[in-house]
UniProtKB/TrEMBL annotation:
Lineage: Bacteria, Bacillati, Actinomycetota, Actinomycetes, Micromonosporales
Segments forming domain Beta-hexosaminidase bacterial type N-terminal: 10-120
InterPro entries: Beta_hexosaminidase_sua/sub, GH, Glyco_hydro_20_cat, Hex-like_dom2, HEX_bac_N
Family, per entry: Belongs to the glycosyl hydrolase 20 family.
Protein known as: beta-N-acetylhexosaminidase
Annotated transmembrane regions: none
Length: 477
């Protein structure tokens, strides 16, 4: 992948254990007469991913290939073991997913594989990126291409922010105006758009993600961030009066009405539609920035809505404001603020709830890198590469220790985005930094090592046409 020979540990995220054996390089020769891969039937799809990683023709499959894929149930499901000798490569995973992560490690090492043994497994089970389709819509093909880039860094969840004040991006049977009107032309910030996912497109996206061991986490944001709902269905406002569309980037001005029964008929239909189409275990109900919802109404609304995902067989996730409400057992709280302390989140953790850590001043991909960045926002300050790397989830929130942390997410809000090139520019290279925070053992992380490993991605991304920010913090190859 790069001109220079990689060392065995030159991988992002840094593997848990690396033991090089000098002078034992294995060379992959792609193409029909080149290196063959052997894999049991349950791993043939993963073997195909490996093949396509190395050339357009891929690697051939054979019963006695020099690259062998295997399963070992004694390993944790996302764990893998990679042994490279001069004669062979053996990649063993606790499940097909573990083997798939090992394939990503192989891809980064390139075709000249340094000898030795890597034993690797993730620190956190939930390693996520979020994409905001509401402020700016991205097509299914664009989201798929994004997933292909995320999995290279062993990200295993993609949170889709599907609804907000500006637009509504998922077809809901029985509520057609949501997408006809609020998915129509001009519904993105500053008039970008149109766009929405049909049920079939959403299901296809979920399946595409699942083939790459990524779980889609759909978010329907409520009771705030609902102006687009009320434009389409004014009966869901307090007085039923027409509502003007808004494509500015203000937040906190709209709310569903806790005291109206129509509200819950709407919410139940939407959540059932999404749950039925989503094989993954999570339903994200938003709950953030409800500045125009009186506190008692927020409580009343959440008392009705928080149990719905559970009744549909899903686990509810909400932004950390929901910790102020009475949380069902198993509810997951996603922390997003910059301030270090939040008593309600600490209480939720003390009661056994899990927390997803996504502090804006470390993980928000929509913050500007520095004063010269034209894209992005800066309400949480500038977030350079080192800033997104040098912090630890277990130190971030008082009362929220390692055992309470489900994982880490890097959200990308899309108010300032207009293209896939913009998505990539803000995602790379900060997403790899957050991915290493989420995957690698805490004591293995080191900024100097990271910046050297990251530098090798310059030519890789350039060759692949991936737009990225040439941060001056990195000595790019
Ligand atoms: C805050 S973080 C929001 C979003 C904005 C974002 C911009 C959170 C849960 N809500 O509505 O898009 O800031 O950075």
């Amino acid at each position: 992948m790069s001109e220079r020979m990689r060392q065995l540990g030159d991988v992002i995220p840094r593997p848990a254990s690396v033991r090089p054996v000098p002078d034992a390089t294995f060379t992959i020769i792609p193409g029909l007469s080149g290196t063959a891969v052997s894999a049991p039937p349950g791993l043939s799809a993963v073997a195909a991913h490996l093949g396509l990683s190395f050339s357009d023709d891929g690697l051939s499959l054979s019963d006695d290939g020099a690259i062998r894929l295997a399963l070992d149930p004694a390993l944790a499901s996302e764990a893998y073991r990679l042994e490279i000798t001069a004669e062979s490569v053996t990649l063993t995973g606790g499940s097909a997913q573990g083997v798939f992560w090992g394939v990503q490690t192989l891809r980064q090492l390139g075709t000249e594989l340094p000898g030795g043994i890597i034993e690797d497994r993730p620190r956190y089970a939930y390693r996520s990126a979020m994409l905001d389709l509401a402020r700016h819509f991205f097509t299914p093909d664009e989201v798929k291409a994004h997933i292909d880039l995320l999995v290279q860094f062993k990200i295993n969840h993609l949170h889709l922010h599907l609804t907000d004040d500006q637009g509504w991006r998922l077809e809901i049977p029985g509520w057609p105006r949501l997408t006809e009107i609020s998915g129509g032309a001009g519904t993105g910030v500053d008039g970008a758009g149109p766009g929405h996912l049909t049920l079939a497109e959403y299901a296809d996206l979920v399946a595409y993600a699942a083939e790459r061991f990524v779980t889609i986490v759909p978010e329907i944001d409520m009771p705030g961030h609902v102006n687009a709902v009320q434009v389409a269905y004014p009966e869901l406002t307090a007085d039923g009066a027409p509502v003007a569309p808004r494509t500015d980037a203000e937040v906190g001005y709209s709310s569903l009405v806790a005291a109206k029964e129509e509200t819950y008929a709407f919410v139940e239909t939407v959540l059932k539609t999404v749950a039925d189409l989503t094989p993954g275990p999570w339903l994200h109900i938003g709950g953030d920035e409800c500045h125009s919802t009186p506190a008692a109404d927020y409580q009343a609304f959440l008392a009705r809505v928080l149990p719905i995902p559970g009744a549909l067989g899903k686990t509810v996730i909400g932004w950390h404001e929901i910790a102020a409400a009475d949380l069902p057992k198993g509810a997951v709280v996603q922390y997003w603020r910059t301030e270090p302390a939040d008593d309600a989140v600490a209480r939720a953790a003390a009661d056994g709830r899990k927390v997803i850590v996504s502090p804006a001043d470390r993980t928000y991909l929509d913050m500007k890198y520095d004063a010269d960045t034209t894209l992005g926002l800066d309400w949480a300050g500038h977030v350079g590469v080192r800033r997104s790397y040098e912090w630890d989830p277990a130190d971030r929130l008082p009362g929220v220790g390692e055992e309470s942390i489900l994982g880490v997410e890097a959200p990308l809000w899309s108010e300032t985005l207009r293209s896939v090139a913009d998505v990539r520019y803000l995602t790379f290279p900060r997403l790899p930094a957050v991915a290493e925070v989420a995957w690698s053992p805490r004591d293995s992380r080191d900024w100097e090592s990271f910046r050297e490993r990251l530098a090798a991605f310059g030519p890789v991304w350039t060759a692949a046409g991936v737009n990225f920010y040439r941060s001056p913090e990195i000595d790019w190859h």
